[in-house]
Design brief:
Two copies of one chain form a homodimer. Chain A is built from seven helices and no strands. With about 140 residues, chain A is mostly helical. At the A-B interface, helix 4, helix 5, helix 6 and helix 7 of A face helix 4, helix 5, helix 6 and helix 7 of B. The first copy, chain A, binds a DNA duplex (30 and 30 nucleotides) through helix 3.
Chain lengths: ~140, ~140
DNA sequence: CTCGCCCATTCACATCAGTTGGTGAACTCG
DNA sequence: CGAGTTCACCAACTGATGTGAATGGGCGAG
């Protein structure tokens, strides 16, 4: 009866998605980028302004087609926006998933599976070293929340 | 075996639901009955006419709240109204990736994110080489489906 | 500092989701 | 037979959803 309000608003979920699934180079997607990407990938038109409104919570209640488009872009099933339990389950894996949105990164991960602990450690060190060389910041730890 | 029914359009799915979930005495629910029931159970207002339009396919693309209400009434998850194939594909991807959850592979993937294409390629090659050294088979390409 | 660019935010407006109010066909019960 | 109900169906309208065009702050380059 007393609806659990704070937990599962649409804007909260969208906000989380923006924070977690990012382009290959660090920063969050821009509203324009998302709108553009959805449009070019055969989705319906969606304006950057509207995305902003949804994220800010000024508008909830989008249509089926827009929900489909958003889910498609962020790589989550549409159920993510409805079912809180489902959303939580997916959230647990999202930080990992986001890394895999990048094709090259995904390939590395898939192929690293099954290697010995020692080899993995060596590779991990190498990645860190390269990261340092390229002047990248500390990666977003998955310990947010 | 998962029942293969009610694929495709929203109207098809709704139609199926009307046919399957019925009141105690045989006949299908009336549009008024459904509208009334949804309203009394705390749902949003929804007109009988609109239900008819949706079922007939004159209107697809309802809003989030109306989808929730319909799903609630017929006792199905809201995901029921969305495209099945796509949802299943994404779900499969998510569960596949969850296999990596506790592996050090995760750390590598997370930290490899954002590296230059050249560096990623170098790392990928290295992983392949190590893989070879440890006598592991070619991994399944992720380009299946 | 100033120009130019990118981006979030704002606001006035158009479009389409959803409603209100109606028509007639079919089906009772006097 | 009518008079009264109930239902699918239709059409004109209302307002929330969704858009486009301006505003203004931040930031790098010249």
């Amino acid at each position: 009866m007393p609806e659990e309000i704070a937990a599962g608003t649409l804007s909260t979920k969208l906000n989380h998605l923006f924070g977690v699934v990012r382009p290959a180079d660090g920063d969050e997607y821009t509203f324009d980028e998302v709108a553009e990407s959805i449009r070019t990938q055969g989705g319906p038109t969606i304006s950057a302004t509207y995305l902003w409104q949804l994220r800010k919570g000024l508008r909830d209640n989008p249509t089926k087609r827009h929900l489909e488009a958003l889910a498609g872009f962020f790589g989550v099933p549409p159920a993510y926006f409805f079912d809180d339990a489902e959303a939580e389950r997916i959230d647990a894996e999202l930080t990992l998933l986001s890394a895999f949105r990048d094709a090259p990164v995904r390939q590395i991960a898939l192929r690293a599976r099954g290697l010995s602990a020692k080899s993995l450690e060596a590779i991990s060190d190498m990645v860190d070293r390269v990261r340092e060389l390229e002047g990248l910041p500390e990666p977003a730890s998955d310990a947010e929340r």
